[in-house]
User: Fold this.
Amino acid sequence: MLKRIKMLKQILNKFLVLSDVQAAIVIQENGEIIQSIKSGIVINDGLQAVLSILMRDSKKTAAQFGNASFSMVFLEFSDNFLILGPVMDEFYLLIIAKQTANIGQITYEMKKNQAEIMSLL
Amino acid sequence: MIDKLPDGKSIGWMQAPVQWIFTHTVRFLGIVRVVILDGEGFILIRKGLPLMYYFKHGRIELRGHGALDYFNSHKTIEFNLCKYTPEEFSRALEICEVAGIPQETVGVTENGRSVPARAEGAVKRIDELPVVQKVEQLPQVLADKSETKSEKHSDELPVIPQVEQHQQVLPKKSETKSEKHGVELPVIRHIEQHQRVLPEKSEQEGKNAIADDSPIPEADVTASHPVPQPGILNEVEIKTIGQIKKLNGIIAISFFNDDRNILLMGDVEIEPLLNIARTMLTTINTIKPHLDWGFFVHMTLQIPEGNLIIAPYHENHLCILTTRTINIGHIRRILRDLQQDSDREMMR
Assistant:
């Protein structure tokens, strides 16, 4: 179990080393954080609740497209953005970054590491 | 008659003011198919020059000014731009000739090839188009029709402006003025066409009007330009949205508010799409107060078939449907630029 947690942290750390990435989180649909690694950002209960809303609503919204499931949600504000990608069932990988971060690099790493994260959940 | 016309190549369905059509079709040869409520019609256009207006609602047919006035009575109309080949255009002209447009008026040579007709001549011919029913009678006629067909539509039918309004607009010499300044004033030109149709206006009076150096009445010029209204985009903004639509991978783009779609470019069924867009907006509005991340730029939902992007634009929003292969980074930059421009305008 501890080994799995350590491995998950190592994977999430691959995101944190990317320029201007502030947090990499594996989170459940109910807002419960499975594992996270962050820098310069506080993940409080309020933010967790917001993320839960985003995951549930995005799932519902995507279902309106002929029962499709979403492959990614990208929510951008002037200072920060977040990228949310489903990993498996009710588990999601969430990346929070500054506006200046390289989105292409982040999404590439998300796809590359998805299978490994899945195997650790 | 509409069914007999060649289909042409559809460029896409849009919603925009009628004036937009005239200002954005200077290189267009084809037909603009218009749909309003249960009726449909068309505007036959050759390089920005409308050659025929037609609208049919049930058994009521409007042609010429009657149809144009009806189109103009709507802030925006829904239409499909369909491009014609010269051959298709010639065929369309032949069909319209049955309805009263003389063939020689539309610049078709003996070998069937379209050639530009002199603007004045063409305008004159438009003026000669028969008006099947007097405009003054239309509101009543349409109201009767809607009552028999469906009670609920009667409230939605607009009041159609009377022809007399057009008779007072711009003297003929304004065309000379606009040409002199090299400024294309399609809306003004359009109203001039109405002025020339006046039966009591003799040719000599027309010549006098050209020679007359009296200034254009300011009120009339103002009346001839579209007045910016909340939720209505100006030409530059429509052009910008059109440029986004032209990018590789953009299927459709809509400018919408809480109640309705204001402008649509692309061939999609808009209402289901906007329902999804509004659901996304609700999510954003729930989340936004809890995040101290600055102003909202966009939300993109990626599904296996493509992306749905929502972004604020002026006081309303853009909804963009793209293919999966689109370069999100490119779209992201465009949306940021759009919003910065929009913010700058609002600060002025």
Observations:
- The CA atoms of residues 136 and 162 of chain B lie 6 Å apart.
